[in-house]
Design brief:
Layout lengths: L4 E6 L3 H12 L4 E7 L3 H11 L3 E3 L2 H6 L5 E4 L6 H10 L3 E5 L6 H14 L3 E4 L7 H11 L5 E11 L17 H17 L5 E9 L5 E11 L2 E8 L1 E5 L2 E5 L2 E5 L13 E5 L2 E5 L6 H13 L9 H20 L3 E2 L1
Parallel strand pairs: 1-2, 1-4, 2-3, 4-5, 5-6, 7-10
Antiparallel strand pairs: 7-11, 7-12, 8-9, 8-16, 9-10, 12-13, 13-14, 14-15
Helix pairs in contact: 1-8, 4-5, 5-9, 7-9
Length: about 325
């Protein structure tokens, strides 16, 4: 398959309009061919704004379009399972926003549907396609900062005034652990190359926001190494990640978003000397789309299969249980 893959977008979510669609449009392997909304006017308006050829007034219409190869799903979390399974049954490959599902059981069902249909299903953690993460993992494994003793990651922002936001609907999968806490959790699993054995999380559940976790802090145990993290939707914006070794530290000031030239750079301090590591600026959303395209074209396997998403959901499940029941949860 040498032609560009045609993508269809299910919904007009802000992340799709602001980041994912423009990223796909920068790709030489992909193009955005259609967008759907339950309101045809919204779909058409977004299509006009972003130069998308086709607008549909229902998700079903888009899935029935035989020209669409790949579907991107940025819908609220509680709709991920339904529309992923329906897309798979329609023979479409799928990029689904994180978190993949509301829980690991849903994620397993989605994985099974994709496997049965013979399509790829990828969770949209775009940050991991930025080339700095390979460089950081190489540094860790080379012993550049000695033995790894721990990780500290945070991701917070303040959107609490928008009380109608889908992030503040408990039954829709709202809350800071689902929305941003999933990033440091996922990054620790990625960089350490193993799964945690226990979690302990404390959270602030806000009655003003349908009792979702507006702030959470936790400890994710990976045997002798742990990730300490916090996440929130009612706090000042920040998203650094720090990796502590016996002989040094790797610091990533903007660990999960890289919008501008230089925002992907990181620092390493080893044996008392600190230096900045410069990384070529890339669009992580484009890299993500191209990675999926290469797998669809059978040019390269997916580096992160859907079972990675299932395993991440198991950790998120444990974090939410720990926060609700005020207990350490063993995985």
């Amino acid at each position: 398959m040498s032609r560009k893959l045609k993508w269809g977008i299910l919904g007009c979510a802000s992340i799709a309009k602001r980041s994912v669609i423009p990223g796909i449009q920068l790709s030489e392997m992909n193009e955005v061919a259609a967008i759907a909304s339950r309101n045809k006017e919204n779909a058409q308006q977004t299509a006009d704004q972003l130069g998308i050829p086709q607008a549909y007034g229902s998700y079903e219409e888009l899935l029935e379009d035989p020209s669409i190869d790949v579907v991107y799903i940025p819908l609220p979390n509680h709709l991920h399972k339904e529309w992923t399974i329906r897309a798979a049954e329609a023979g479409k490959h799928i990029l689904c926003e994180k978190p993949l599902a509301l829980n690991a059981a849903e994620a397993e069902d989605m994985a099974a549907a994709a496997e049965a249909a013979g399509v790829h299903l990828l969770e949209a953690f775009m940050y991991r396609y930025h080339p700095r993460y390979d460089a950081i993992k190489d540094l860790m494994e080379s012993g550049a900062i000695g033995d790894i003793r721990g990780l500290r990651g945070v991701f917070t922002f303040n959107n609490a005034g928008d009380t109608a936001n889908v992030r503040y609907r408990k039954d829709w999968g709202g809350g800071s652990i689902y929305d941003v806490g999933c990033y440091p959790i996922h990054a620790a699993r990625l960089l350490l190359g193993k799964e945690p054995n226990a979690v302990t999380v404390n959270a602030f559940f806000s009655p003003e926001h349908d009792d979702v976790d507006m702030m959470a802090a936790g400890l994710i145990e990976f045997g002798d190494v742990s990730l300490s993290f916090d996440c929130g939707m009612w706090a000042a914006s920040r998203n650094p990640l720090e990796i502590l070794g016996t002989d040094g530290i790797i610091e990533i000031p903007s660990a999960f978003v890289t919008p501008t030239e230089g925002s992907g750079n990181f620092f390493i301090t080893a044996h008392g000397e600190k230096k900045e590591i410069y990384v070529q600026h890339v669009n992580a959303y484009t890299e993500q789309a191209d990675h999926l395209a290469r797998a669809i074209r059978n040019e390269a396997p997916l580096r992160f299969d859907v079972q990675d998403a299932v395993r991440n959901m198991k950790v998120i499940d444990a974090c939410l249980l720990s926060a609700r029941e005020h207990t350490r949860v063993v995985l």
